[in-house]
Specification:
4-stranded antiparallel β-sheet, single chain, mainly beta, bL21-like, Large ribosomal subunit protein bL21
Length: 102
Amino acid sequence: MVYAIVRAGGRQEKVSVGDHVTMNRVPGGVGSTLELPALLLVDGEKITTAAKDLANVKVTAEKLEDLRGPKIVIQKFKNKTGYKKRQGHRQELSKVKITSIA
């Protein structure tokens, strides 16, 4: 089984061909291709970790859609002072499909 550990939007993800990965928003339209930098490659029994060998590894992905994550509510409160603050956040995400590891 061939899989790779790639850097995807500030995180590391274990991917193989055909996987769907949700990552931070990447520029480009739906259907565009992007290349993810590989940090480790496992090809059957062979494991590649050397930086010069990983420079030749290409992990390509196709962008499927743009979406937004769940709403996160941030609340701050200080007792006896009347201070209350409430704000929300929704992370912008992209869903990609891994098309090849070469």
